[in-house]
Amino acid sequence: MGKVLYSVTMSLDGFIAGPGGDMSWLAPYLGPNPEIDALQRDIGALLVGNRTFRGDDPNRGTDQEGAFGGTWDGPQVVVTHHLPPTSMPGTTFVDDLERGLAAAKAAAGDRYVNVLGADIARQCLELGQLDEVLTIIAPVLLGDGTRLFSQPGGRNVRLERLRATEVPHATNLWMRVVR
Fold it and tell me: How far apart are the first and last CA of the chain?
């Protein structure tokens, strides 16, 4: 079975979305990133939170709309309390994280399940199911918004650095969750 990876771009001050879920801040930092391009070949399925799935896409209305700048083509499982009345090709909607994670793992096989969404990543961590975190750090300060990780009352989660790479517009920081 493959690993569960939370990949995300964040501001230097720890926000993955601006106030109200605004993602427009991200557009200047979406340049080429060879590590992310290579990662996509290793992803078997996406596990996506509802807010992320229905959220503000900085590429909305362009040919780069969607996960990974519109280049993702594969199964995605969306965890939501509001199941849509109609289905979407390549997308499975579930109302339970554990069922969603099981479906994404089955679809991914021995490849990564890539988590998109801070709350879904936090819940996977609580279940002991998050293996790795890839954070693309953009050189910008947002000051407010959705944090990379937020746990009411706080929580110390130990991480081990696997590697760090620089690209012209960001720094990739790959970590393993220490259990």
Answer: 18
Q: What is the pLDDT of residues 32-86, one digit of tens each?
A: 888 888 888 899 999 988 777 666 555 455 555 455 555 567 899 999 988 888 8
Q: Which residue has the higher pLDDT, 166 or 154?
A: 166
Question: How far does CA 177 lie from the centroid of its chain?
Answer: 15
**Given its phi and psi angles, is residue 128 left (phi above 0), alpha (psi -120 to 50 degrees) or beta?**
left
User: Which CATH superfamily is 4-177 part of?
Assistant: Dihydrofolate Reductase, subunit A (3.40.430.10)
Q: What is the dihedral sign for C-alpha 160, 17, 145, 127? A: negative
The predicted model scores a pTM of 0.88
CB atoms within 10 A of CB 155: 11
Q: Measured in whole angstroms, how far is the alpha carbon of residue 66 from the centre of its chain? A: 12
Q: What's the alpha-carbon Rg for the chain, to the nearest Å?
A: 15
Distance CA 97, CA 77 (A): 10
